[in-house]
Inverse folding.
């Protein structure tokens, strides 16, 4: 990234106004003097400035709003112009809406970090692939941030773990040291951008499965076997689609899977729990009033796997329950016969 090397990471911005975006803003402002932040509406911005916290998410986290330059949906190109490094943290169903409106000439020299635990649903592609194919970014301009790091625990300064992946490891190290590490966040680095992105999608699907089983009172023994089979399934799939050397027991793979599958903060586990208790998919979505990324991820992975044909019984069971109306109890019972 020729125009940014001397001052990298430069001016940092966050696109998104939910709990994860808010947690990331807290982390960034613990290390950076200023932040650009794109929220959806001028009303959201006005309320944020008045209250000095995000009015809808992580309301216990207060911000020095004098250090934040706010933008709204209508300012998306101005927002990108004002940034050198942009963190994408909006729910996956909305990211295409934003990126389609960003002119390629505006985004061309930026570093874009994917913090979204999902894919672009319309194209069934990873965010990194979308940025390369549709926004014409080079691999060295793309990164990913993920790991066992619930927004609610960041709000409480609880020890958390992130991994920043980048095709350019020099940039990954700078990002880790100057943006994402602080007293309560440990940040590792990795080259495995694609593997981390796929793992972030898959762990949400497995968390829905864990929630379904919890709602059915399947018990802790069953859950442990479910998750041990899930990490094996994840490893098989990711190794098939992107064969590089990786250790799936690292926190960005297994750790993120465990916390998403077991934590009461997990939206995907909560969504699955409702399904296991007998809610319809639509009723569960309406009651949550929040996006469970695994719902969209299940369809994306199912369709992608038509090409690769990896054996993925857990993902298939979740897809069939959510999209094909398969009976929950029958699907989980059939799944249980495949476990070892």
């Amino acid at each position: 990234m020729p125009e940014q090397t001397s001052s990298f990471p430069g001016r940092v911005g966050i696109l998104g106004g939910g709990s994860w975006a808010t947690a990331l803003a807290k982390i960034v402002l613990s290390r950076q003097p200023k932040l650009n932040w794109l929220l959806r509406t001028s009303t959201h911005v006005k309320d944020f400035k008045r209250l000095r916290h995000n009015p809808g998410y992580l309301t216990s986290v207060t911000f020095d709003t004098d250090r934040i330059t706010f933008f709204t949906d209508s300012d998306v190109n101005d927002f990108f112009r004002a940034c050198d490094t942009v963190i994408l943290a909006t729910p996956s169903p909305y990211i295409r809406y934003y990126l389609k409106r960003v002119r390629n000439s505006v985004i061309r020299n930026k570093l874009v970090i994917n913090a979204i635990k999902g894919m672009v649903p319309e194209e069934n592609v990873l965010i990194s692939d979308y940025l390369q194919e549709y926004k014409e970014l080079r691999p060295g301009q793309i990164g990913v941030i993920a790991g066992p790091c619930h927004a609610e625990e960041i709000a409480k300064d609880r020890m958390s773990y992130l991994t920043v992946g980048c095709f350019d490891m020099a940039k990954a190290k700078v990002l880790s040291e100057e943006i994402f590490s602080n007293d309560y966040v440990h940040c590792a680095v990795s080259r495995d951008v694609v593997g981390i992105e796929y793992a972030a999608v898959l762990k949400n699907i497995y968390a829905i499965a864990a929630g379904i089983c919890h709602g059915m009172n399947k018990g802790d023994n069953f859950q442990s076997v479910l998750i041990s089979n899930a990490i094996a399934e994840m490893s098989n799939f990711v190794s098939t689609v992107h064969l590089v050397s990786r250790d799936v027991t690292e926190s960005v793979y297994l750790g993120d899977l465990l916390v998403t599958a077991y934590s009461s903060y997990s939206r995907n586990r909560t969504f699955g729990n409702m399904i296991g208790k007998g809610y319809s998919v639509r009723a569960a979505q309406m009651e949550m009033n929040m996006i469970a990324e695994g719902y969209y991820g299940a369809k994306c992975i199912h369709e992608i796997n038509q090409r690769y044909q990896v054996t993925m019984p857990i993902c298939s069971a979740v897809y069939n329950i959510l999209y094909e109306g398969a009976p929950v109890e029958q699907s989980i019972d059939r799944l249980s016969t495949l476990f070892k």
Summary: The chain has two domains: 10-190, 193-335. The beta strands are 12-15, 35-38, 68-71, 85-88, 111-114, 142-146, 160-166, 185-190.
